[in-house]
Amino acid sequence: MTRDTQQLLDEIADEIKHDKTCPLRATRKHTVPGEGSPTAKVCFIGEAPGAEEDEQGRPFVGRSGQLLRKTIEEVGFKEDEYWIGNVIKCRPPENRDPSTEEVEHCKHYLFAQLVLIQPRVIVTLGRYSLQLLVSPELKITKIRGQHIKKDGQIYLPTYHPSAVLRTGLQTLPEFRRDIAAARKLAETD
After folding, report:
1. DSSP secondary structure, 16-63, as one string
2. pTM value?
3. Residue 179 is part of which domain span?
4. CB within 10 Å: which end of the chain, N or C, has fewer?
């Protein structure tokens, strides 16, 4: 099962890389399909790759990614328990917010990845993944930390780690609690 799932995830990554209709194809250096365990209990989903991610072709490797990965490790996740990705798979120029067109173009890739992985919990990092995966009406500041069940899937909205860095780490304790809560939710049936 794992090998087949990984092979299918690799095929999606290849599709993303060779997508000639990608609205960001001309401005990106690398695609950033996502990475982690094909049998992840928890998926962490952000909005879009940043400059470091575009350079390396890996999600969450810049400052905010280092905060996310450090927090994931501190609350006790093992590498084979999680997967990290984004709503869109290429960096928008100047790190601007993803456009509606870009989200619409990429969302089927994320949906396919999540169907293959079948995580117990999806942690939405910031508003883009929350609004795409759960509901466009929800506001991260109102719903953060509350797990939501939708169509049999558990979602846990929290801040994007870049927002945690921007607030001078005032939101770090809540962010850490949310990541720890995701781990607990993943362990219960």
Report:
1. HHT-TT-TTTTT-SS----EE-TT-SEEEEES---HHHHHHT-SS-SH
2. 0.96
3. 2-187
4. C
